[in-house]
């Protein structure tokens, strides 16, 4: 169970998340139809991911189990991005439904998460916090879509971002107290959440008009770049 859901699972179950990240970037470049095609691909693979992961869930899960939340929120981000780009108003409520469902998946995964992974994990424990980062990003984009006037969505987005930053602090302390200096492929599951948190922080600040979140996002981006460089060096050193 643990080996399948960590090393091998990490490589095979990031497909939906990677597809949605690529699709979102492509949409921002103006290639909306290509991004829509990637959304279809991601949406088709998403149920397979849910069945593969949730079907193996038990107590004391590793961090990679949170990929079901990451993938769901990735679909939410891409859907609302395409909606804002004029590819269909119906995509906005779909994104909202995915966002809420993704948060529910997060709660269930957190309930089953092996909290000892914070101190002993080889890198994928950071997905437990990265899932909140992409959730905050999805929330900020839903606010930007201007389909709803309720302040509940704005407040919920800020709460999710606050929890994300709290997780960030806890995991940083754990890394400092118990350094894991050897290279492991699961360290790439640390790099992605670092970058996503930087983006989510800056984007939330811009959307909600909170100016101090922008410099915080830039600082977090510098940390993410440093982590990427260290992980890349570890990869090269392991060959």
Describe the structure.
The chain has 239 residues and is mainly alpha-helical. The chain is built from ten helices and no strands. It has helices at residues 4-12, 15-28, 32-54, 67-84, 91-112, 117-120, 127-144, 151-177, 188-208, 213-237. The longest helix is centred in the last third of the chain and has 27 residues, at 151-177. The model is unreliable at 1-11 (pLDDT under 50).
Number of helices in the DSSP assignment: 10
Uncertain segments are 1-11
Classify the secondary structure makeup into a structural class: mainly alpha
Beta-strand percent range: under 5%
Q: Please bin the fraction of helical residues.
A: over 70%
Q: What is the rounded Rg?
A: 17 Å
The strand count comes to 0
Major sheet details: none
**Secondary-structure element pattern, one letter each:** HHHHHHHHHH
Mean pLDDT: 88
C-alpha end-to-end distance: 27 Å
Form type: globular
Write the layout of secondary structure elements.
Elements: H1 4-12, H2 15-28, H3 32-54, H4 67-84, H5 91-112, H6 117-120, H7 127-144, H8 151-177, H9 188-208, H10 213-237
Task: Describe, in short, the structure shown.
This protein is mainly alpha-helical.
Characteristics:
mainly alpha, 76% helix, globular, 239 residues, disordered N terminus
């Amino acid at each position: 169970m643990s080996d399948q859901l960590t090393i091998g699972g990490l490589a095979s179950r990031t497909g939906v998340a990677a597809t949605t990240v690529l699709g979102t970037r492509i949409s921002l470049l103006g290639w909306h139809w290509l991004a829509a095609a990637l959304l279809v691909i991601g949406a088709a693979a998403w149920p397979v991911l849910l069945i593969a992961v949730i079907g193996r869930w038990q107590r004391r899960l590793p961090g990679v189990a949170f990929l079901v939340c990451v993938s769901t929120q990735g679909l939410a981000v891409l859907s609302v991005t395409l909606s804002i780009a004029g590819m269909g108003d119906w995509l906005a409520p779909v994104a909202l439904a995915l966002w809420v469902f993704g948060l529910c998946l997060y709660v269930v995964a957190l309930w089953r998460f092996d909290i000892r992974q914070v101190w002993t994990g080889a890198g994928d424990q950071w997905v437990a916090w990265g899932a909140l980062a992409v959730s905050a990003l999805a929330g900020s984009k839903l606010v930007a879509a201007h389909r709803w006037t309720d302040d509940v969505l704005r407040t919920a987005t800020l709460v999710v971002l606050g929890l994300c930053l709290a997780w960030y602090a806890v995991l940083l302390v754990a890394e400092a107290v118990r350094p894991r200096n050897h290279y492991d492929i699961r360290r790439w599951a640390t790099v992605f959440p670092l970058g996503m948190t930087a983006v989510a922080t800056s984007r939330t600040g811009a959307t909600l008009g909170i100016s101090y979140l922008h410099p915080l996002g830039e600082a977090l981006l510098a940390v993410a770049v440093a982590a990427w460089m260290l992980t890349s060096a570890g990869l090269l050193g392991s060959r």
